[in-house]
Specification:
The complex is a heterodimer of chains A (574) and B (176). Chain A is of the alpha+beta class. A seven-stranded mixed sheet of chain A has the order 16-15-21-20-19-17-18, sandwiched between helices. In chain A, α7 crosses α14 (501-513) and α8 (353-366) packs across α15. The radius of gyration of chain A is 29 Å and the shape is elongated. Chain B has 176 residues and is of the alpha+beta class. Helix content of chain B is 24%, strand content 14%. Chain B contains five helices and five strands. Chain B has helices at residues 12-15, 18-37, 80-84, 125-129, 155-162; strands at 63-65, 90-96, 108-116, 135-137, 152-153. Classes of the chains: A alpha+beta (574), B alpha+beta (176). Bound molecules: iron/sulfur cluster (SF4) (4 copies) and FE2/S2 (inorganic) cluster (FES). One iron/sulfur cluster binds at residues 179-185, 209, 229-231, 233-234 of chain A.
Amino acid sequence: MSDDKQQGVPMVNVQIDGEWHQFPKGTRMIEACRQVQVEVPHYCYHPKLSSPGNCRMCLVEMGMPPRLAPGEEPVKDKDGHQKIGWMPRPVIACANAVAENMGIRTDSELTKACREGVMEFLLVNHPLDCPICDQAGECSLQEYSAEHGKGDSRFRDEKNKKPKNVEIGPRIRLDDERCIMCSRCIRFCAETVDDPVLGFTDRGSHTVLAVHPNQQLANDYSMNTVDICPVGALTSNDFRFQMRTWFMKETSSICTSCGRGCNTTIGSREGTVFRQTPRDNNEVNSAWMCDHGRMNYHYLNSEARLTDPMIRKNGEEAHQVVPWSKAIRFAADELLKFNASEVAVIASGRMTNEELFMTRRLIAELSVEHVDIVLRRGKADDYLVAADKNPNTAGAKLVLGLKKPGGELAAIQKGIESGEIKALVVLQENLIDDTDFTTELLGKLDFLLTTYPLANPTADDSHVVLPGAAFAEKDGTMINVTGRLQRLNKAHQGPGQTMEVWEICRDLILAIDGGNGIYGVDDVFKEMAGQIKAFAGLTLSKVGDQGLPLLKTKLTVPMLEREKERIAKGEIVG
Amino acid sequence: MAIVVKRPKLTFGEKIYLSSIAKGMMITIGHFWRALFGKGTVTMQYPEEKWDENLPEYYRGAPALVTDEQDRERCVACQLCEFICPPRAITITPEEIPSDDQWAKVEKRPQKFEIDMARCIYCGFCQEVCPEQAIFLRKDYAITGVSRDEMVHDKKKLYEIGGVREGLVNKWNKLK
Ligand code: SF4
Ligand code: SF4
Ligand code: SF4
Ligand code: SF4
Ligand code: FES
């Protein structure tokens, strides 16, 4: 979306449906209409892709001032506008730019007839698949046929047959009968992720979308084609037949599978997450996300979720389920038995700033010195994926005041080995599987407390196991690798008795020392803003859906950089 | 915009209700009179006596799933009935039809289909909304059970009540 008033770009006067507006020169007609809340239906146009203008759905009536004879002065009305000479044929709004004194009619007879005609042709061979089609409910073809279609078919012949239910990649299913040949998927693969594996073959009404011979649509961004496909031709194997779109509640959040923090929409129903889709943010992920992050939600619905607080007293074999009040009391009493130097806290770069802040308060309460988080380094790619697999390492560094995240772990191990550290609090980490801590080492501890969403070996070894909420089940903020502060929103309450870690820490502090004045997550943020300079003056609501730049870094996002170049060249709108 | 509802003005006679009570009593006494000396009793000794043969064509009894002439389950698990059902009596779990199945081209079917008859209000919306003509309200009305679980009709039970229904639109039978 281009900004209304870019610096130095001259403005032009454009009449849209009878009203005059001003737009920067070069704005596409479709974007100009969008800016003044006039919707132009479209299939092939996508602001982040090139505009081939092949679907013709965006046809509108257009007019320009009449051409002047040599020496003739333009006749202007009292507002300074010339008379518009309407052209007898329509133009596409997606690939043409506005010009001075241009007129656009999106509600004229000609425009309506064009839309009706395009819809009729698109539906000639379209199957009656809506009841079994995953796109139903968010399908442009359904929407536009209700809004702009004839409502009736004049086609009495047999519809032509095309391949259905074809696996064109490990995560993507293609139904050629539903394809409307908009070519968005082809352009996305070729232009945005440099993996040109899709194309059209055959001609006329027999045209089909296909993968090139011996190729697959298998890149790590393949599922974005499902999002941009305006119909149900491309569907995701992961989401296939899982839930109808209209049942799902949509929650704006961010992906927590790497430090990029791609903006997402979580689709959930009655406590079960069914999918994650990318949400536009031109500072983070444009309109895309990687397949790995998108599908990394299944553990939320897993059978292995911890649902109740559990304790195991020394000498006992098995954990027993107890109410929260009892678990917290037990944990607080145990922790108070140790000297400050005998306790260590290992928090997580997967926790929100709010959770980390309450951890910081707990640490202060117990005067703990040994504090760290677990680092997760992986590979970055040339698009969105960041090397840091923790979503909030920057937050942990800032809020916990860690000089060198991950640098203290070895010292903690040594301390446990030598008996100097007797109690360990592990928040949202599974040390045994994700680090080189071992059961033997943890066995040396007198007290081990773990919070985690899933059952795991570290929890098995713990004296207190608390069910800590996972990303879709909490409110809060994180700081991504480029230093942007972004919000997570709670889609639903976690299973069973699950609590967010800031709540757990709040209750522990409460049990250790009485009141602490924290009730909601807003209170935590407020207090954090008062104590940590970087957050000064901010509130949760100021962070908003698009986030804020918080820390200065020199890092850029490879995918965004390339898109910026293409915007500058006028290839895409952005 | 607020809509102003005009309330009718009651007269004094209407306000004291006496006339309405008298009117009601007249109807009751009328029935009583006719039962004693007129056509005799109109009460049926249910369940010994039943009125089943006289149920009209449009009678709305228990909703049930139907199969077609070729024994294909007509429901494709589109979940529109689940959506429209006012008391939320329907719960569907869809699944993909395996590729070696005779009807693999239909792609989707219900793995589980449950109607909670303790909730169903026999409105018939499910029948009306179904794009596949797969669910119909049958004439069964005596749905009983001794527990809540027993009141839930599962897929098997629903097909049992529904049976086969012939002569419906059959888009899936065309070659595809
Ligand atoms: S693509 Fe849209 S119109 Fe076509 S079957 Fe799917 S939901 Fe229906
Ligand atoms: S599969 Fe979808 S995105 Fe690709 S050309 Fe067909 S309709 Fe367009
Ligand atoms: S008849 Fe009405 S209440 Fe009963 S299942 Fe159908 S839609 Fe629901
Ligand atoms: S009974 Fe009809 S409306 Fe209900 S899920 Fe099956 S096909 Fe859809
Ligand atoms: S959106 Fe303009 S031609 Fe397709």
